[in-house]
Amino acid sequence: MANFFTDNEDLQFQFDNMDWDTVIDIVEAGFPDEEGYASNEEAVAFFRDVLTQMGEFIANEIAPHSKELDEQHPEILDNGEVKEPERMEKIMKALGELGAMGLSLPRRLGGMNAPLVVNSMLLEMLARADVSVMSHFGFHGGIASALLLYSIEEGSTEITNGGITKTRFDEQIAAMATGQEWGAMVLTEPGAGSDLAQIRAKAVEQEDGSWRLTGQKIFITSGHGEHHIVIARSEDPSTHPGLKGLSLFYCPAHIEKDGEKVRNFAIGGVEGKMGQHSAVAATLDFEDSYAELIGQRGHGFLGMLLLMNNARIAVGFESLGIMENAYRKSVAYAEERVTMGKPIVQHEMIADYLDEMDVLIAGLRAISFKAATYEEVATRMKGMLKTQPPQDDKERREREKKMRRMKRKARHLTPLIKYVGGEECVRFARMAMQIHGGIGYIVEAGIEKLLRDALVIPVYEGTSQIQALMALKDNMQSVIRNPGRFFSMQAAARLDAVRGDPMDRLVAKMRVHVLNGIQTILTNIAADKLGDLRGVPVLNWRAAFMKDWDPGKDFSFGMLHAERLCQLLCWEAMGKALAEQAKAAQGTPQEEKRREIALRFLERYEPRARGVLLQIEEKGSVFRRLLGNGNGNGKGKKKEDLAA
Ligand SMILES: Cc1cc2nc3c(=O)[nH]c(=O)nc-3n(C[C@H](O)[C@H](O)[C@H](O)COP(=O)(O)OP(=O)(O)OC[C@H]3O[C@@H](n4cnc5c(N)ncnc54)[C@H](O)[C@@H]3O)c2cc1C
Is the pTM of this model over 0.90? Predict the structure, then answer.
């Protein structure tokens, strides 16, 4: 019988090579209870069983319905509620009965208390079957986990004997764990998508401490749910402009009024979309709608980032599902379709496509597992530091240090996963269409659906450009903070690039390209700002950089090349992770295979990285003319600027 877990050798490898001890120790220590496992081995066996059962269900009960899911659209009813497509409703009901929505929620609230990384594997398998199902599914357990996290963060969680006995959102979490209810992440407005500082939805505090929300939110996935996490402007823009004036709110879709259950805000409409047809993207109209503050006033953006970090890693797994689907369909077709006397899989160009797809899936999966683990460990450690703070000062400091290290690692990988996942799942769907030739364009074959479903992945949860800007900012800041460390890393990478094992040399070469890219960007930013960095001692860069910034102009060179730098960072991270896995597999039956995958990835992407670096280093006028106001056609620029 088909099974999306057991049929996937690379996924099995990742599962087998997870650092389960670290993850389980922290997951179980965070929520100790009598129903816990007798040992970590027992826990791993349980996760494997659950994923095997889910893999079978998804392959046999969801994947065969993907065409039907594409044909059915949600609709808005006369009573203002949304009618979900029938097939989606049936699937969600079945997943709820299997306990899938509560996979990573605490046992006391109806969940199975599995690590989030187990949930991530489930997300990948669901996306491989149908992206709209994964998307809607994610807003059950995902919103419940976020509410749990918020309750811990704001200190409204009760702990007895080291275990959570009550959270502020017990009722909501338990309802979402059953699959009967779900929520949404409500940010976007007509004038505020990437630029959340433009949010206008207004929140006003009431005498009884509750709040009222007014404003419109658009494109809200699963916006027909019950439990919404909404970001709105709570502070006066003249004293708290931009992101500083935002707060986070819990807003139920229904409230009790005069003994009756009524809608708290209206669903203004359901969008007709290019793909992911069975999933809902709703407009929500808030008008004096009841809401409760989450966390501190004015800290809404930070709160939203907590939710978004997890969501962006989840998008990485969503992309993997699409890529796996595209790859498998392409291999199957290429083996069977014969042209010019042989199956097209034997034609060099098609073989090249398929080889690229194979290694890229392995690369993205390797960094996605790493990021999911870092994020989970960091988040749970942070929660435990609040709920079970160590009495010993030294131990507390050590744990805080470890938590920050994990968080830094997660923060480094998260935008890369979102970027590379979003961009590559679209390219994979496009390659799959090309490999299928004419039939790829025909609806019946189900290949064009992959492309339609994929095209929004580089847009939602922060566009690719926003991810690139985040990666740029973090990397620039870390060099400016410690330029000495940067130059020693560069020297070490250059040395490693010419000595030792060929796989290690390729990893080091990738590192050199990344560091050279960062250096070129920094020196150009500095030259634009300071005239020239020559003569400024390296250790004085920080002071020079921090003085009198005009962010609209001074970072122009970096912003122009942010996406190129992001590509370099992605390829380096994937190559490095694959090489680490190859080393970890030494002495096991997987040794040869893992080394071969790592080398195939590195040999493909090292020359490509060299090419991208050349573009960043390009001194001609092609890119120069785009600097400043970003207007390449010269409109709005002075003649002398263009001449320069
Ligand atoms: C199907 C679907 C589901 C969605 N689900 C949700 C949801 O559940 N909740 C929610 O709140 N929102 C949701 N969204 C909204 C989505 O997150 C936004 O559309 C997205 O963040 C982009 O915002 P925007 O559409 O306003 O584009 P804009 O921000 O206007 O961006 C337009 C283009 O300009 C680029 N750009 C913007 N600023 C910069 C810059 N500084 N430098 C370089 N390039 C830049 C962007 O990358 C993009 O290419 C969904 C959207 C869709 C289509």
Answer: yes
